[in-house]
Specification:
The complex is a heterodimer. Chain A is an alpha/beta fold. Chain A has two domains: 1-80 and 158-212, Rossmann fold (3-Layer(aba) Sandwich), CATH 3.40.50; 89-155. Helices cover 37% and strands 25% of the residues of chain A. Chain A has helices at residues 43-51, 73-79, 96-104, 111-124, 140-153, 170-185, 197-200, 221-226, 228-234, 238-242, and strands at residues 5-14, 17-27, 32-36, 58-63, 66-67, 81-83, 158-162, 189-194, 206-211, 214-219. In chain A, the strands form two sheets. Chain A has a six-stranded mixed sheet with strand order 6-7-8-3-9-10, sandwiched between helices. In chain A, strands 2-1-4-5 form a four-stranded antiparallel sheet, covered by helices on one side. In chain A, helix 3 (96-104) packs parallel to helix 5 (140-153). Chain B is mainly alpha-helical. Chain B has one domain: ABC transporter involved in vitamin B12 uptake, BtuC (Orthogonal Bundle), CATH 1.10.3470. Chain B contains 14 helices and two strands. Chain B has a two-stranded antiparallel sheet. In chain B, helix 2 crosses helix 11, helix 4 packs antiparallel against helix 9 and helix 6 runs antiparallel to helix 9. Chain B is globular and about 55 Å long. Chain B starts with a helix and ends with a helix. The chains are: A alpha/beta, B mainly alpha. The interface between A and B is medium-sized, with 34 and 24 residues. Bound molecules: adenosine-5'-diphosphate (ADP) and magnesium ion (MG). Magnesium ion binds at residues 43-44, 86 of chain A.
Amino acid sequence: MTALLETRGVWQRFGGLVANSDVSISVGRGEIVGLIGPNGAGKSTLFNLIAGVRPPTQGTIWLDGEDITATPATERCRRGIGRTFQVVKSFETMTVIDNVIVGALVRSTEMRAARRKAFEVLEFCGLAARADVMASELIPSEKRRLEVARALATEPKLLLLDEVLTGLTPLEAQTGVELVRRVRETGVTVLMVEHVMEIVMPLVDRAIVLDLGKVLVEGKPTDVVRDPKVIAAYLGDRHAVGA
Amino acid sequence: MHDVTHAKQRRRDLILAAVFVALAACVPLFVKDVYVQNIMVLTLMYAGLSQSWNILGGYCGQISLGHALYFGLGAYVTAILLTKFDVLPWFGMLTGGIISALIALALGYPTFRLGGHYFAIATIVIAEIAYLLFLNWDWAGAALGIDIMVREDSWAKFQFTRSKLPYFYFALFFAAVAWLVTWWLENSKWGYWWRAVKDNPDAAESLGVVVFKSKMGAGAISAFLTAIGGAFYAMFVSYIDPESVMSFQFSLLISLPAVLGGIGTLWGPVLGAVVLIPVTELTRSFIGGSGRGVDLIVYGSLIVIVSLTRPDGLLGLFSRKRKKEAVQ
Ligand SMILES: Nc1ncnc2c1ncn2[C@@H]1O[C@H](COP(=O)(O)OP(=O)(O)O)[C@@H](O)[C@H]1O
Ligand SMILES: [Mg+2]
C-alpha cells in the first residue's frame, strides 16, 4: 500500500538560499509524524510545498499515490490536505463560526449543513462557547485552535500543523496535545511541525528531523532525541531543548 | 440551537427591510414637494448603487474607484438603444447590465491579479479612459451627449412628464432588490468566500476558496447592478453626457455611502446614503451648480474623517452600543 503523503527529492531555492534540499519523506495513513528541527531548518517551507502554496524548484509530491506537484492549493484542500499557518491567519472581521464555515463549505455548499458542521467542529476543538465572537477578539491560544478547527472543517485526510503548540502555557499545550490525539482517533493523519521537541515527542509515532534544509535523522522519537547528530543540530538552540 | 439564532437574525433583517420599504413607499403621500422628492429618488438610487458597489468593494475587499464606468455604461446603452434603435428602456437596462458584467469580467481578468492599492488605481485609470473615449465618440454623441426626448407618460417607455412618483417607486424597487441580492448572497458560499478573500487570501486558498473566481463573481454581479442604476438615472434625467454619467465624482458617490455607513455590511450602504445624499444635495444647491470642486473636497474629507475616526462606519456606532448593553 502506498503512503498517504510522499515527497520525492524535493528542492526549494529562494534565490541563492536553499531552504529544502533533496527532501524525501513519507507519511503513512493514521500516523502522527513530527517534523522537527532548529529555527530556519526549512520546516515551514516544506509545509508550504506540501500544501501547494508554490511548486517546488525540483522534485515531486504525491498524495494517495497521485502526483499533486502541479495541483494548486485550493484543489489540494479539496483532495484532503488541511493546514494551519505558523503565523495565524484568522479571518479577523468574521466571527469564529463564520471562519470555520468557510472551511466547511468545501464539502457542502448547503449553508445550513455547513453551519451545523462548523459548530460540531468548534465543539470538538473546545471553541463552541466562542462561536459568535469576532476572531480578532480571541486570545492567542484560541486563535491556534481556530486554525485547527478551520482546517478540520474541510474534512482532511492529512492535517498539517505548523507550530500549533509553540508559545502556549503548559496547560494550553497539554490541551493541544489531547486535541491532536483526538483528531487522529477520528482517522485523520497528522504531520506536525514543532520547534520545541519536548512537547511533541510523547505525541508522535515517528519523528523526522530537518536541519539546514535536509533530512538529518528519521525514526522513533525516543531514538531521535538521543541521536548525537540531532543534539548537535540543536546545540546553541537551547530554548528548543530546554523549554 | 446555534443555527436557529442565526436564522432568526436573518429573518429579522428581512422583516426590518420590508418595514422600511413599506414606510418609504408611503412617504410621497405626505411629501409633495418636487425638490424633496427629487432628493429622495437620488437617495434611494445611491443606496442601491452603493449596495452594488459594496458586493465587490465591501464584501470581497476589492476597492473600486471606477464604478462610474458601469454606471455610465448602463446609462449609455439604454439611451443609445432607445434613441437609435427604438428599443424599450427595460431591455436597454438589461442589456446595459449584461454588457457591464461582461466588461467587468474582461477588466477583472488582468486587474484582479493586482494587489492592494494597485487595483484601486487601475479602476480609476480605466474609468477615466472610458470617460475620454465617450467624450470623443461622435456616434455616441461625444461631448454633446444624448437627449432622450420625453413625449408622453408611459411605463413601457419608462418616461413620465407630470410626476416624479414612478421614478421614486422604481428607485425604491432598485434599492430593495440590491439589498435583497446582498442579503441572499451574504449567507451563501459566495458571501463567505468573498469575506475570506478580503480578510486573508492565503488562508482562503488553503480552505479551498478559489480566490480569482470569487473576485470575478463579485465584480460581475456588482457591475450588473450598478449598470441597472445607471440605466435608471439616464431615464430619470432624460439627458446624458460623459460628464453627467461617467465622471470620477460618480465613482466617489457610489462608494462613499458604503464607506460612510459601514463597509462590507448589509445595512451600511442604506444608512450611508440616507445620511450623505441629502447633505450633498443640499450643499450643492446652497453653493450653486458650479460647486463641483467643492463636492470633491467634501467627499474627500469625508473619506479621510471616516477612515480615521470610525473605520467600521456609522453602523459601528450601533453595534458598539449593542455590545455595551450585552456586557451590562
Ligand atoms: N518566501 C521566502 N523567500 C525567501 N526566503 C525564505 C522564504 N520562506 C522561507 N525562507 C527562508 O528559508 C529558510 C527556511 O525557513 P522556514 O522554512 O521558515 O524555516 P523553519 O520553519 O524550519 O523555521 C529560512 O532561511 C528563511 O529565511
Ligand atoms: Mg517555521
